[in-house]
Amino acid sequence: MEFTSDLKQLISVPQNVAICSHRNPDGDAIGSSLAMQHYLEQYGHTVHVLFPSEYPEEFEVLPGATDILIWDIHTEECKHVLHKKNLFIFLDFNAYNRIDKMGDFIRPLPGKRIMIDHHLYPEPIADHMFSEPEASSTCELIYRFISGLGDSMKISPAIGKCLYTGIVTDTGSFRHATNPQIFRIVADLVERGLDDTSVQDMIFNSQKEKNLRLLGHCLSNRMEYWPEYRTAMIWLSKKDYEQFNIQRGDTEGIVNYLLSIREVKLAVFIHNQPSIVKLSMRSKGDLDVQAICRKHFNGGGHKNASGAYSHDSLKATIEKFKALLPEYKTELLR
Questions:
Q1: 217 and 200, same structural domain?
Q2: How confident is the model at residue 2, as a pLDDT?
Q3: N or C terminus of the chain: which is more exposed, having fewer CB within 10 Å?
Q4: 134 to each of 93, 112, 181, 201, 308, how far by Cα in Å?
């Protein structure tokens, strides 16, 4: 990371700051945004965190989460707040379309912009851009950002809790996208007062009964497996959403269960949304699901974890995915 005098001036002098992250925010989006907020407030900045849509319920206990403004719910308040900002910080996304209508509103507004992200193919949306696709998470980058500015002592237990949330969720509990530095970072957070067990409980031991029944339904009734392609799929229809009263965040992580099958190299979760069909892909080893999503389904993300969407029907999308498997057979069996 390169820290210019202009950037250091922006951080050290109180500003009116908006921190934004992507639609359907996950643990890394929420954790990085709240960690940055708590860090900047120590410098006297006035800070608001804004998301296009709601975040999963289990993250409500993170410090500051209940004050997050949601564009879909608090549209007019968001507009009022954003008009007053002179510094915009974009976390865990790298293109305005990832924040939808909120991005359209922010784009013409005056003010400096900082982007910190670990996704591929960033667009030039900020004055200061920190883009490192090899990083485990945006939370890793926030830790390095704060440390790089010489402010390690400002990493409080509250900031540590937020950062650890993003690191755990984006690495699948340290099963992928890890690097030597990330373990040193976590060790430092624990030494600074992080209660890592409580974060693990928040993420993994706070499910509702319906979530377990939904998982059972997915594995028993909605899973398909093609051993000749080392590929497995789970799909959910609108009827399933109604039957289990599925809300935002309820399906998070379901696709990862498919990767627990020893032979599976490619896992996909395809589900019906009100206006589109969404796909989440995960892979093992060198199989690049980002390339598959980008080429065939208007998506992208990371090499081993990507998302996409389709305007076709659920059935047509599933059939399209299945028809692609022969094209990737050599890679899947490698």
A1: no
A2: 80
A3: C
A4: 15, 26, 12, 28, 20
Residues 172 and 252 in one domain: no
Last residue of a domain, one of 204, 233, 257: 204
Phi/psi of residue 86, nearest 5 degrees: -120, 0
**Span 52-63, pLDDT tens digits:** 999 998 999 999
**Contact in structure between 140 and 33 (CB atoms under 8 Å):** no
Chain-wide mean pLDDT for the chain?
95
Domain residues for the domain of 15 are: 5-204
Task: Report pTM.
Answer: 0.91
- Domain harbouring 150, CATH code: 3.90.1640.10
Q: How many domains does the chain have?
A: 2
pLDDT surpasses 90 at 301: no
Distances (CA, A) of 37 to 46, 64, 170: 9, 9, 20
Q: Is the pLDDT higher at 177 or at 67?
A: 67
Please write the tens of the pLDDT for every residue from 138-163.
999 999 999 999 999 999 999 999 99
Q: Which of 204, 229, 258 corresponds to the end of one domain?
A: 204
- If asked whether residues 198 and 174 sit together in one domain, one would say yes
For residue 1, what pLDDT is reported?
A: 80
CATH number for position 257: 3.10.310.30
Long-range CB pairs of 33-37 (<8 Å, 24+ gap) are: 33/68, 33/91, 33/92, 34/62, 34/63, 34/64, 34/65, 34/68, 34/162, 35/139, 35/142, 35/143, 35/159, 35/162, 35/163, 35/166, 36/89, 36/91, 36/142, 37/64
Kindly state the helix (H) or strand (E) to which residue 70 belongs, with its residue range: strand 69-70
* Mean pLDDT along residues 65-83: 97
